[in-house]
Amino acid sequence: MKILIVGAGGREHAIAWKISQNEKVNKIFAAPGNAYNKVIKNCENINISATDDILKFAEQEKIDLTIVGSEELLVDGIVDKFHEKGLKIFGPDKKVAMLEGSKAFAKDFMQKYGVKTAKYKSFTEKEKAIKYLEEMSYPVVIKASGLAAGKGVIICQNEKEALEALDEIMTNKIFASAGDTVVIEEFLDGVEVSILSITDSKVILPFLSAKDHKKISEGEQGLNTGGMGVISPNPYYTKEVEEKFVRDILEPTLKGIKEEKFDFCGIIFFGLMIARGEVYLLEYNMRMGDPETQAVLPLLESDYLELIEAAIDRKLENFDIKWKNSASCCVVLAAGGYPVKYEKGNIISGLEKFENNRDAKVFFAGVKESGNNFTTNGGRVLNVVSVQNSAEKAREIAYKELEKIQFKDKYFRKDIGLIK
């Protein structure tokens, strides 16, 4: 089989690594990929990123399956265009992708089908948003409705901060057109849980739970990032929490998918909050999370390609997903200054120490090949992942192994996986 993986980060590296374990796969193309093609057998980078170019390439090369990592392309309708040409692709069409592409659309869907979520309202006019704030108690959450690379959420402690956030999003356009509509919702104080899942529109099969660490600094302080680390499974995801998630979120979501006649095979990412003894849905993502993917896929004992094919064939109800009885810890190595201003092009040393490393894996997030060297090429540079018998051991080994990697201004959080 020829597989095309669309995207350029650590998530795509993890997907390529897992897919490559299936013996049917003899060629992987990455569009545009990153330097991970140098560490995965028979993997080739294709320097394209626009939907039409990707479609043309898939036709010319007779690609057997395309897997999309990028949320932007899903919202742009890449799946629709592939289906028009009769090409096999894994992911939601443009209509369904709006569950991630528009927080306002997603919240309306949740309300319509009784998915448990925070109280909210959506606004396209700043004056009306300001008036609604008079009804809210603080803290309050203000979100840019569109795609903002995981950074479009601002928690406001008081009215002054809320008014400033509306100014920044709706007037100064810090998230560009993603902020044309804002969602204002009540603040839920609790513990977040990430649940990746796969669906064929008939059933939804959840993956192992994960706990993401979004903020740049220890103790969940500072600016939001795309994610600074993950542990899986999430220790707060108890049997009771799972039952509430299935009853109050997963089942109503599936009901909505069926009633809206959303016919797709793909990933649904549930971003949950455990608060006040209940489980609430914060958001949907319609693709694998980053860096959750890097922590969850190494725990998957089942063949990932076979799982995807079962979804495409609408046979998920017969698929029994197998997981390792282990735990993983993923720590992100970032460039100093991320997520604001940072350097690219710094030489990375020590990666050769992971070629046959049984204790930890490295996934390339923002890495470029420069001559005989690997260099930094993004804010989040590398993911160091360890799978062990316990969460404590996985955390210990991940932090021990990441010391083997060096680059200028290397930064990482030191509290990934620490549970209060």
Could you characterize the architecture of this molecule?
The chain is α+β, with helices and mostly antiparallel strands and 420 residues long. Helix content is 29%, strand content 29%. The strands form five sheets. Strands 10, 11, 14, 15, 16, 17, 19, 22 and 23 form a nine-stranded antiparallel sheet that branches. The chain has a five-stranded parallel sheet with strand order 3-2-1-4-5, sandwiched between helices. The radius of gyration is 21 Å and the shape is globular.
Brief descriptors of the model:
420 residues; alpha+beta; globular; 29% helix; 9-stranded antiparallel β-sheet
Write the layout of secondary structure elements.
Elements: E1 2-7, H1 10-19, E2 27-32, E3 43-45, H2 51-61, E4 65-68, H3 71-76, H4 78-84, E5 89-90, H5 94-101, H6 103-112, E6 120-123, H7 126-133, E7 140-144, E8 153-156, H8 159-171, E9 182-186, E10 191-199, E11 204-212, E12 215-217, E13 221-224, E14 229-232, H9 239-259, E15 266-275, E16 278-285, H10 292-296, H11 304-312, E17 327-335, E18 347-348, E19 361-364, E20 367-370, E21 373-376, E22 380-388, H12 391-402, E23 410-411
Parallel strand pairs: 1-2, 1-4, 2-3, 4-5
Antiparallel strand pairs: 6-9, 7-8, 7-9, 10-11, 10-15, 11-14, 12-13, 14-17, 15-16, 17-22, 17-23, 18-21, 19-22, 20-21
Helix pairs in contact: 5-6, 7-8
